[in-house]
Amino acid sequence: MADVLTGAARRAADAVDPARTLADLGRLVRTPSVTGDERAVQDLVAGILEQIGATVERIETDPAEFARTDPDWPGQEMPRTELPVVVGRLGRPGGRRILLVGHTDVVPVGDPAAWSVDPWGAEVRDGSLFGRGAVDMKGGCASILAAVRALVESGAAADFDGEVVAAFVPSEEDGGQGMLAAIRAGVTGEMAIITEPTDMDIVIAHAGAIIFRLTVPGRAAHASMRREGVSALDKLGVLIRALEADEAERNAAETDPLMTALGLPYPTIIGIVRGGEWASTVMDQVVADGRYGVALGETWRDAETRLRACIAAAAKADPFLRDHPPTVELVGGKFSSARVPADHPLPVSLADAATATLGRQPALIGEPYGADMRLLVTEGRTPTVIFGPGHIASAHSADESVPVDDVVACARVLAAWVARELATSG
User: Angle formed by the axes of helices 345-358 and 404-421, to 10°?
Assistant: First the structure.
């Protein structure tokens, strides 16, 4: 590809409208869509796509039936009764197909008092738009919508040799079943970009994670006779120390520069602890939920095997737990790792389009979090990267925000890249 944009790619990039992009982003953020309740925002997205002129398809999957019947169902952490997917199409079916993918669900607001703005207000301040989901990832969704609109209004879409598919999925935050439902309905292609926040660098590899629950036994006793009891909290401490040693070993064993650059690519944490019924009684049970990192090259099943082995070895070494073993369950999302080669045509072509559009060369990086990328790569057989506006550090936090200029710039890169990839010639 050339160093500068020409022809349809230049026209598509230039056709991105900053004002309408900001308006769409504001509407998305002002529409609450906490995981498990995404219907309203999906209706909004479908309406915008129809106004743009895309062919809109809705995919409806029964989540209960999906969980029972699909062997690769990726889990969930929030209750739900529906799984609405919205897909917009431009171009000619039957040729090459490329995907632009975003998730519309967001995590809960948390403590409203921790916010200096209305979490659903979409306030713009100092060049950034604030609100729950602004960066994770309604900013990226707005970039996709703006790119699709620009491809239509520039005329580039009329000459496509193939089609671009814009897929908006629910349930990414708690496992990815929305993405898997889309894949099962045929939403796959030659290449895909997910517009999660990457600070406009290109993620070509990501780790994964599993959510687990430990049920740790103890033996109850009156506080005045505590030596007659065994504190389940103390035994949880035994298991935590084993998990810490396992974390150190797994991270020290990593040699891939994409992951070693992260410092701690495969963290393990305990995030929730529940136990005890009376202050004067030695705890006879503790239940702890946590996250266990999945290493690059591993599936979630590989990580589960290692987690179970770690807990079993620690229990075997403890006199009480040897006879009263803890249990391990997977209770939430199950994210395998994924990667595409650095020299694959997808990151190469996207980096070229980004350089020509933005005037800087994006880095090819790895990330420690799980993402829908792994489902497209492993289940959809679709080479996929992550490239989007804003920084992940703002995600899930109070006063979450995304720079508006980044949302517009991302849209311009996407429009230019799609126009190049689906050009009828050259």
Answer: 130
Q: Tell me, what's the pLDDT at 426?
A: 43
Residues forming beta bridges with residue 103, ordered by sequence position: 169
CA dihedral 267, 370, 403, 263 (to 10 degrees): 30
Counting runs of H as helices and runs of E as strands, what totals does the chain give?
13, 16
Q: Write out residues in the chain with pLDDT < 70, as ranges.
A: 1-4, 425-426
CATH superfamily of 7-206+337-421: Zn peptidases (3.40.630.10)
Beta strands 364-367 and 202-206 are: parallel
- 152-155: list long-range contacts, CB under 8 Å, 24+ apart: 152/52, 152/53, 152/54, 152/90, 153/15, 154/8, 154/11, 154/12, 154/14, 154/15, 154/415, 154/419, 155/8, 155/11
Report the alpha-carbon distance of residue 377 to residue 341 in Å, rounded. 12
Q: Do the domains at 7-206+337-421 and 211-335 have one common CATH topology?
A: no
* Alpha-helix runs per DSSP H in 201-341: 232-253, 257-260, 300-316, 319-323
Among the listed residues 66, 63, 90, 100, the one whose alpha carbon sits nearest the alpha carbon of residue 153: 90
Give the sheet arrangement for strand 401-403, strand by strand: 124-125, 128-130, 401-403
Contact criterion met (CB below 8 Å) for 232 and 286: yes
Q: Where exactly are the structural domains of the chain? A: 7-206+337-421, 211-335
Which residue shows structure tokens 């959510």? 211
Burial class of 112 by CB neighbour count within 10 A (0 to 12, 13 to 18, 19+): exposed
Largest CA distance in the chain: 83
Rounded to two decimals, the pTM is 0.93
Contact 85, 61 (CB under 8 A): yes
Class of domain 211-335: alpha beta
